[in-house]
Amino acid sequence: MNTEKAITVARHLLKHRESEQPRLARIAAYMRGQHDSVYVPNGAKAEYRWLIERAKVKILPLVVTVVSQNMYVDGYRPKGSDDNAEPWKVWQANRLDARQHGVHRAALTYGASYVVVMPGKPVPVITPYSPRRLTALYADPVNDEWPIYAIEDRVENTGNGKRRVVRIYDDEARYTLVGKVDGTSLEMDGKDAVMRHDLGVCPVVRFINTDDLDGDGVLGEVEPLIDAQDQLNMTTFNLLMAQQYAAFRQRWVTGMAPPMDDAGNPIEPFRSRVDGLFVAEDADTKFGEFGQTDLKGYLDSREATIRHISTLSQVPPYHLLGQMVNLSAEALAAARDGLDRKIDERESLFGEGWEQALRLAGLAAGNKEAWEDTAAQVVWRDTSARSLAQTVDALGKLVTMLGVPPQELWERVPGVTQTDVERWKKAAEQGDAMHRLDGIIEKQMGTSTQGQQIAPVPDVAA
Prior knowledge:
Mean pLDDT: 84
Oligomer: single chain
């Protein structure tokens, strides 16, 4: 792609990005707690606006966090092998043990996220991206594995102010263009503007939250819950208003005029205190009080909205409400059933993305065999809510009753990493080698003493 075509493609893709940015920006704002305001009448007092700012219940980040914290890629295995494939070294070198969570969170939040795989030294470079920074264009967004083009867009600070940096990816190279912040005056960025990768595909892998066969666009976890979040904020605001103005008993007095100060302003005639008493000289004076507002209805409404969010997101209510009293193991498993099914679906979707990225990393490293290995699979860590004792007991029964080799079940122990399993296997192999060595020594010693008469033990007492 020459300079003129690169600039033309960049302008086209930037225009395409503009259509999706408002939606993504709104989702990002809700994740930061910058929600749409409740209704504010004209002339509202500062106290009213103060309550509005404190009526925001930031529950949407928790919905994303609960799912993301249950997803952790722990290995990448070829078919029929217990050892990680060669591209796993690229994974480790790119610190993806930690950075994978950003990919998962972005896909859960916005509906999609991306990683870019480029050749590098000593290993290929895998870079995660939010859809707010990178957009991929597919001929068929439903069935195509690789995009035609991808565009990375950002604004960076320089010594002379800010500038727009745009990178275009195709199946041959990466093209870097710079220009003004508004996207005008784009031009190639010097001699390093073109970085060839020659991978034969656009080196961008997409992670999607849901598989949409209609091509209407992907949907994240946040956008369907925005209306429920606004409803929760409105109920919380009404609760705060009731607390501020009507949650306490207000007293009233009739039949007397309040005293005045020197300026003619009324003075409060009574001061409420524990040991105080209200007394009036006029027999017609009456005292009374208004009852306080019952806040239970507001609290029940808030809880109902949170439960509604829990139902829509398949996140167990105890995660959002903080209520978990005397739940048995069976009840806890039943409460997590929807969440576990959701996590299984997301792992199958994200797993395909990671397998695609690791295959491409193998190709970028010059390993043609890894690129052609379509049977290799990522291994997800088991994060199910089960007690360690119950899990170990069940695994022990698999060994004793069904004859499953114990080493094949080690990775199913909760909290055990792939590194732990590999260390255990090495220790087991060393133990087997020592056991075989002991057997050989015993056998040799038994052979050397055959046919020899052992002298009787002398009688010390005699």
